[in-house]
Design brief:
Elements (H helix, E strand, L loop, with lengths): L2 H35 L7 H23 L6 H5 L3 H32 L13 H5 L1 H25 L4 H15 L10
Length: 186
């Protein structure tokens, strides 16, 4: 299996995870609104909704990493010579991976501290289960960075004209834009 095939499968897995979480959040909010309208508010509604939103944020961040869709400075990078571009890209990757390794380790350490705590509205749900999103998403992001690293460094190493960079950016936007006709542009 090539690295590109692995990247696409990993991306698809993360997409389904985020879609599932968004669906659960939509159902949970709808049920909460219906119950509140009927005058019987659910005690756990707000707490669970905020947890689901946090999970969507963390797992969506892993999805953005595998898509290479986080905020960057492509305009600045395209004017650099290949050697400088490669150096900057390598430093950025090392810092990103290092940050998420530290975040994962710290998140894992926090789980031990929270081992005896439970949610306020759902005492049967342990807080460390809820907070496990931090180390898990950190590992997912590091995996995404490592899967995309060879292609990213190869792209940084080659000379790319401003026109090629603009065309590549436009093509990426088309691939990521939802299709109005229902036909996937890929």
């Amino acid at each position: 299996m090539t690295l590109e095939v692995m990247r696409r499968r990993y991306e698809r897995l993360l997409e389904w995870l985020v879609i599932l979480l968004m669906g659960v959040l939509a159902v949970e909010v709808t049920v909460g609104v219906v119950y509140r309208t009927l005058g019987a508010s659910l005690v756990w509604y707000d707490e669970v909704a905020s947890i689901l939103l946090a999970w969507i944020t963390f797992y969506g961040s892993a999805l953005a990493s595998v898509k290479r869709a986080h905020i960057g400075c492509p305009e600045v990078m395209m004017f650099l010579p290949p050697k400088a571009k490669l150096t900057f890209r390598l430093v950025a990757e090392v810092l990103t991976i290092g940050f998420f390794l530290i975040m994962g380790w710290a998140g894992y350490q926090v789980l031990g501290v929270l081992a005896t705590d439970t949610l306020v509205s759902l005492p049967s749900v342990p807080v460390n289960w809820v907070q496990s999103v931090m180390p898990i998403s950190a590992v997912l992001i590091v995996a995404a960075e490592l899967i995309t690293l060879p292609a990213t460094l190869a792209k940084a190493a080659r000379r790319e004209s401003v026109i090629e960079a603009a065309q590549a950016a436009a093509a990426a936007e088309v691939r990521q834009a939802p299709s109005i006709s229902g036909v996937d542009p890929r």
